[in-house]
């Protein structure tokens, strides 16, 4: 207790100390558009501050590429500093950004904070960089679009491509006598039927907060399209608008229908997944990054043949198509303009050119469209179907709201969502609270 | 009086720790105080904000919710740590065998890492699947009381405070036990011969004797509880809603997630002032009673 709080105060003080010593050392490094700076390649150690699983395919692939590059460039080393836990990572990354100590490469979503960094010229223009390296056209448009800021500018390189599905247990659906919901509005009835059959309808990792926030984004994405959240985060749309109200009412209905497991707000990622993979919960909303757990022989044989998936259902008069849903390209990698030099450019050229083929060979979906995913030997037929479905998505993407709202509004949104779904606050109160929170914080953050 | 050379020696030995203390404790407090008068997001230039961070703090509902929660957290911690510590220490005094073992068992939680404690209590409070607490309630026929302790807005604050209180019961037990050992036995025996009961012996003899130690432990427990942070943060992150949000967790989120360093600094100044006021009150109350 003491140490953690002390660390927080010390970090706060450190941030201040840096600020007092001249917080804006914006004059160092290169201009964010100078993607091909003059000079020779001088090998040295470069670092990548990232928020990805240490044993994941992205790090494994990039580590191999770093080693290959080091063989040809003695003295070069790519150091990975990973913090997979996202909230902890964000805290670390924002504190280092405030201290002007970000390394050569660092992970970030297209958040309002990252937008500020880009505005201050602290990140390289990735659109220009990829064009200059001759790689831009290899990327899936959806993978690049996910990384863009609202004005269309691109400052992050995608390293993955994912599609989020509703995985469900066919046997439990049969037991409850329910079918795959044709509309989002069918969810409450589906949950009630599953509850009556003694089944937990939906497994939810409430502790990490973003999974529940996905549900909040679904109704507005269907009724108004992806533009709603872009307007909302700038306080140009309101929660009291029809899309916001519909979302609040739907979430409240999900809670009343007992859709999520009891005490979901304190259930973590592994426990939620466990509920589904052990056949205790009927539905689990997660992305293709979990394919190795859900669509290979690693899955418990007792449920393996019963697992299937469906995509985000539409609604009546839906503004977006059935093949448009959450298809993120994961957290992106930004290139620090203060430390950018010919070496960083040369390494990125080397790595990004070879990365897609190596990554796809590991059974992953590449952010580029020029390579095919190699199915693992232990894949079930579901694996190939999930990969194929991800390749047939429409133009619009349901962007995760946690990457869109300003951090303060997002934190309050996540807190109040839990209360709404638990039935502790009515939808009307939730709507008015969120309108006032966003009304106060969005303009402040836009400055 | 120390000779001048000895004074110099004392100064030489005292100065480094004093400087270290100043750099590690006083400087951050001064810096936080300074920053609380500014608006700063970590990227843009500092903007002087006068007292606006404080004005906002004193009118913000979420901040006062956090203050109220912190007081609730404080009460639970004090009851468990000081109340529990006093009871266990008093019982230990009457034990004739196995004292050391009991002391070690009570002290054990104080050396377990915070993260392990958080994980342990997450399991204990779990509802789906049922954790030990809910299983026990079901076994003894109190299944009506079964609930997701960490998700219920009515129980979560107590649920996150209890592990913190439990963790340090042993520490305060040992301190109070050591103080109780200094109470002269002959005085207690004389009182008993005069007809004093256990309660009278405790209130008239034992407690007055241990009052200085009680003052110290009270200050320790209160200031630590006011800075309580990690277990609530790890168990619920302040949720559900703001039901277990403490001033410390709120300050942390404001600084490191919302990157509103100015406002977070105002809150940290509040915590410092709040702790100083609490210590002042404890000293005042206990000294008055001693007179």
UniProtKB/TrEMBL annotation, chain A:
Residues 1-24 form the signal peptide. It holds the Pfam family SBP_bac_1. InterPro entries: Bact_solute-bd_prot1, SBP. PROSITE patterns: PROKAR_LIPOPROTEIN (PS51257). Keywords: Signal. It comes from the Bacteria. PANTHER family: ARABINOSE-BINDING PROTEIN-RELATED, DIACETYLCHITOBIOSE BINDING PROTEIN DASA. This is Extracellular solute-binding protein.
Automatic annotation (TrEMBL), chain B:
This is Sugar ABC transporter permease. The keyword Membrane applies. The keyword Transport applies. It comes from the Bacteria. GO terms for cellular component: plasma membrane. It comes from Streptomyces antnestii. One of its GO terms (biological process) is transmembrane transport. InterPro entries: MetI-like (IPR000515), MetI-like_sf (IPR035906), UgpAE/MalFG_permease (IPR050809). Pfam families: BPD_transp_1 (PF00528). Belongs to the binding-protein-dependent transport system permease family. Coiled coil: none annotated. It is a multi-pass membrane protein. It is found in: Cell membrane. Residues 67-282 form the ABC transmembrane type-1 domain. Keywords: Cell membrane, Membrane, Transmembrane, Transmembrane helix, Transport. The chain crosses the membrane at residues 71-93, 105-125, 165-183, 209-226, 261-286. Its main location: membrane.
């Amino acid at each position: 207790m003491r140490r953690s709080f002390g660390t927080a105060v010390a970090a706060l003080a450190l941030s201040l100390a840096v600020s007092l010593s001249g917080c804006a050392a914006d004059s160092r490094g290169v201009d964010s558009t100078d993607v091909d700076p003059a000079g020779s390649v001088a090998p040295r150690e470069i670092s990548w501050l990232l928020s990805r699983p240490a044993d994941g395919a992205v790090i494994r692939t990039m580590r191999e590429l770093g080693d290959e590059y080091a063989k040809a460039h003695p003295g070069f080393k790519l150091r990975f500093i990973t913090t997979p836990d996202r909230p902890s990572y964000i805290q670390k990354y924002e504190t280092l950004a405030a201290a002007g100590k970000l390394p050569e490469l660092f992970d970030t979503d297209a958040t309002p904070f990252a937008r500020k960094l880009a505005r201050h010229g602290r990140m390289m223009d990735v659109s220009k960089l990829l064009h200059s390296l001759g790689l831009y056209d290899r990327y899936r448009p959806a993978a690049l679009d996910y990384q863009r800021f609202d004005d269309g500018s691109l400052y992050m390189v995608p390293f993955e491509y994912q599609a989020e599905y509703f995985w469900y247990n066919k046997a439990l659906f049969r037991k409850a006598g329910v079918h795959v919901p044709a509309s989002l509005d069918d969810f409450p009835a589906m949950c009630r039927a599953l509850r009556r059959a003694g089944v937990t309808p939906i497994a939810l990792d409430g502790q990490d907060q973003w999974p529940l926030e996905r549900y909040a984004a679904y109704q507005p994405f269907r009724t108004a399209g992806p533009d709603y959240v872009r307007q909302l985060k700038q306080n140009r749309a309101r929660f009291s608008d029809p899309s916001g109200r519909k979302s609040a009412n739907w979430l409240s209905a999900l809670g009343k229908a007992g859709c999520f497991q009891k005490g979901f707000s304190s259930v973590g990622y592994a426990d939620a997944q466990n509920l589904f993979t052990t056949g205790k919960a009927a539905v689990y909303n997660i992305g293709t990054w979990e394919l190795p757990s859900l669509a290979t022989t690693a899955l418990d044989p007792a449920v393996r043949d019963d697992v299937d998936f469906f995509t985000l259902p539409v609604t009546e008069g839906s503004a977006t198509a059935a093949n448009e849903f959450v298809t993120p390209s994961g957290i992106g990698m930004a290139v620090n303009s203060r430390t950018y030099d010919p070496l960083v450019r040369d390494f990125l050229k080397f790595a990004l050119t070879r990365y897609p083929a190596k990554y796809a060979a590991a059974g992953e979906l590449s952010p580029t469209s020029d390579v095919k995913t190699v199915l693992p030997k232990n894949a079930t037929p579901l694996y190939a179907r999930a990969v194929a479905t991800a390749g047939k998505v429409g133009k619009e993407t349901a962007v995760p709201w946690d990457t869109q709202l300003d951090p303060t509004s997002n934190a309050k949104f996540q807190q109040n969502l839990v209360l709404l779904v638990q039935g502790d606050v009515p939808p009307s109160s939730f709507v008015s609270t969120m309108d006032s929170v966003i009304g106060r914080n969005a303009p402040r953050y836009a400055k | 009086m120390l000779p001048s050379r000895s004074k110099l020696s004392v100064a030489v030995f005292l100065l480094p720790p004093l400087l270290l203390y100043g750099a590690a404790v006083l400087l951050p407090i001064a810096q936080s105080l300074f920053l609380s008068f500014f608006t700063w997001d970590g990227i843009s230039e500092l903007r002087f904000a006068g007292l606006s961070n404080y004005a906002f703090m004193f009118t913000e509902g979420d901040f006062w919710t956090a203050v109220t929660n912190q007081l609730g957290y404080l009460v639970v911690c004090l009851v468990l740590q000081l109340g529990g510590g006093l009871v266990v220490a008093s019982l230990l005094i009457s034990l004739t065998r196995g004292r050391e073992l009991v002391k070690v068992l009570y002290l054990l939680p104080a050396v377990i890492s915070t993260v392990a404690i958080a994980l342990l209590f997450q399991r204990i409070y779990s509802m789906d699947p049922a954790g030990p607490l809910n299983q026990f309630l079901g076994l003894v026929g109190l299944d009506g009381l079964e609930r997701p302790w960490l998700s219920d807005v009515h129980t979560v604050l107590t649920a996150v405070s209890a592990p913190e209180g439990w963790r340090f019961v042993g520490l305060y037990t040992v301190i109070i036990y050591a103080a109780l050992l200094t109470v002269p036995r002959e005085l207690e025996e004389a009182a008993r011969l005069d007809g004093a009961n256990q309660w009278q012996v405790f209130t008239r003899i034992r407690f007055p004797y241990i009052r200085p130690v009680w003052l110290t432990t009270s200050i320790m427990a209160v200031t630590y509880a006011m800075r309580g942070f990690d277990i609530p943060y790890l168990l619920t992150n302040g949720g559900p809603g703001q039901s277990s949000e403490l001033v410390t967790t709120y300050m942390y989120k404001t600084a490191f997630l919302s990157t509103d360093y100015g406002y977070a600094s105002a809150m940290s100044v509040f915590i410092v002032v709040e702790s100083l006021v609490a210590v002042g009150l404890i000293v005042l109350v206990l000294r008055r009673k001693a007179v």
